[in-house]
C-alpha cells in the first residue's frame, strides 16, 4: 500500500536522514515541508525516485503558513497520509527573536507551530498512522548527558511565548519539554480525537548530534568552532550519536510495526524506551499547555 509521510526540517540533519531512510522503502512518498522552496526541492530530488518525493511550502515561523499547509497537501494528489514527523527545530542565543505573530521564536517554531500542524493534519491521517515528535533529553533537569545544557524553567505558556530577555538555551529546553508534554497528551487524547483509528503517537530523544545545525543562531565564532569540535564530541561524549543513526531510528518509529499502537505515548531515548521527566508526565500541566496552545495559535477548526 502506497503511503505518504510529511517531515518538517527534512532539508538537513536528522530530518534529512530520516527522509532518506523512508525514501529507500518503495511504499513511501516523502513530503519535504520546507520554508525555503529551493532547498526543499533540492532535498526532495536528492531522495531519488524521480518525482515521487516532493516539497511543499511550510514556514513554521508563520502560523498562517501552517494553516495553509493541509490544503496544499490535499491538493498535491499524493498517496494517503500515514505519518507526520515533527522534527524541525531552532535555537537562538537569546529570547528576542520573534515570529510573524510576534511570539518568541524558539517556543513558537519548536512547539506552537508543530502543535497546530499536528492538530490540523489529524483529520487527513490514515487509520493506523503514526505521529513522531522529536524531543530532547535537555527537557530533563540535572541530567548528566545534557553536557552542561541548562534545564527548563517552566512557566505559563503565554509567558513562554512572549519575547524578551533571557537565555536562548533555556528557551530551547522549555520548547523540548513542551514537545514531550504534547506527545504524551496527544497520545492520551488520540482515541477521542480520532476514535478507533489506531493512530500511534511517540516522542524521540535523538541524542547529541554534533553535526546538526542548531548553532546557526549563534555568533560567527561559535559557528566556526563548533564543526571542529563536533567529531571529538561524537566520539567522546556519552549519549552522542549521529544524524544518520538517529535518523534511522526516527524512520523506524514511522515504518516499523513494532511502533504501532498500542502501546501509545512511548518516549524513546536513542533506540530504547525511556522515561520522560516528572514535569513532562504531569497530566495537569500538559492539559494546561494543550488548552493554552489552542488559544495561542488562534483555535483549531
UniProtKB/TrEMBL annotation:
Enzyme Commission designation: 1.3.1.33
UniProt enzyme class: oxidoreductase
Membrane-crossing residue ranges in chain numbering: none
One Pfam family in the UniProt entry: adh_short
Alphabetical keyword list: Oxidoreductase
Gene Ontology MF: a single term: protochlorophyllide reductase activity
Matches recorded under InterPro entries: NAD(P)-bd_dom_sf, SDR_fam
UniProt similarity note: Belongs to the short-chain dehydrogenases/reductases (SDR) family.
Name by which UniProt lists this protein: Protochlorophyllide reductase
Organism for this UniProt entry: Conexibacter woesei (strain DSM 14684 / CCUG 47730 / CIP 108061 / JCM 11494 / NBRC 100937 / ID131577)
